[in-house]
Amino acid sequence: xxxxxxxxxxxxxxxxxxxxxxxxxxxxxxxxxxxxxxxxxxxxxxxxxxxxxxxxxxxxxxxxxxxxxxxxxxxxxxxxxxxxxxxxxxxxxxxxxxxxxxxxxxxxxxxxxxxxxxxxxxxxxxxxxxxxxxxxxxxxxxxxxxxxxxxxxxxxxxxxxxxxxxxxxxxxxxxxxxxxxxxxxxxxxxxxxxxxxxxxxxxxxxxxxxxxxxxxxxxxxxxxxxxxxxxxxxxxxxxxxxxxxxxxxxxxxxxxxxxxxxxxxxxxxxxxxxxxxxxxxxxxxxxxxxxxxxxxxxxxxxxxxxxxxxxxxxxxxxxxxxxxxxxxxxxxxxxxxxxxxxxxxxxxxxxxxxxxxxxxxxxxxxxxxxxxxxxxxxxxxxxxxxxxxxxxxxxxxxxxxxxxxxxxxxxxxxxxxxxxxxxxxxxxxxxxxxxxxxxxxxx
Length: 443
Hints:
Blueprint: E1 5-10, E2 13-16, E3 19-22, E4 24-28, E5 31-36, E6 43-48, E7 53-56, E8 58-63, H1 76-85, E9 88-93, H2 104-114, E10 121-127, H3 136-139, E11 145-151, H4 164-171, E12 178-181, H5 185-191, H6 202-205, H7 208-225, E13 229-231, H8 237-244, E14 250-254, H9 256-260, H10 265-270, H11 283-294, E15 300-301, H12 310-313, H13 330-339, H14 345-360, E16 376-386, E17 405-415, E18 418-422, E19 425-426
Parallel strand pairs: 1-6, 2-7, 8-9, 9-10, 10-11, 11-12, 12-13, 13-14, 14-15
Antiparallel strand pairs: 1-4, 2-3, 4-5, 7-16, 16-17, 17-18, 18-19
Helix pairs in contact: 4-7, 7-8
């Protein structure tokens, strides 16, 4: 009996667990059913992938979609549309909405809002506070929960766990890996006058020592608690040196922005559009991030998609909000780094698919193999395209990479065997579902 698929991705090259080679991928009932070479009539639908590269579905594990409460910046529909247009198959959304996602009811509300509106698969972090620390062990086991997010330094929103005693209580509650924004709050408050109304001083105010102190404190407290942590958007050479010695307890994220932009040029060129927390730093730190990528210290690249309207960003610094959109540009920016030789394609897949799945225990994700979810990012590695604000689907309507020409572009986003985006167009209706996590099955 001949094998029959719902969708056949035929004639391309695929990044499988054996490496990059010419192979067709047959998807049936939402999962990869077979890899091999099949005739075009073997499926109800066939997509000709000649000249294209098939990657495990990209996962962006740090996005801020602003719903509920801040929908003028972004909502779950526009944010996930941006993800799909950028070749991203799944997202993990952060809790600093209004109100912040700190209870089971508020997590359930986000999942309900996403149903029928999310273009890609999704999960939501629960925010840690000094008040809810004891409940986190139960909250992290709820369906659709990506885990716990802790802000050690203030950023967008009101979530904050600043003191060692409170951090320790959060780390003592639960067992899943905790995602952490590591900036030292006491030093942030002490140094705020150094901002001096000039965005070029953003990395002076929120300096490398502010990040180093927080990460050092976090690693000490995590080791005492025996709790694994994931340090988000790492920006400094000093942190990378510490994290290289803490592989048993800590995993590491960097962002495309910190790998691509550098001070002082980005502030002179973009003004407050380059403002994010932790800041874009100088070339010395950027070079250290790239060394950490090459040496395997970095586990994940996440966009830290954090949209604000242009009107908000045009406020005088430091009253202007920190953050920039990034989910739609994650794949093109990294493909451009691949084309330039700064990153191998294998390493890109590890950082955007296999790494996120491993760090957070996402079931069915991160690989092109029989039995895995039929989520595939199809890219043209030779296409030269210009990133433009007009392409951005996020409600904020801008990107710090406006005008940048890149080599490599997402051509299709496949979700469980259904094309939700092809050639820059969203197709049919949103079909995103909550992600499944291996570590919550017995929770």
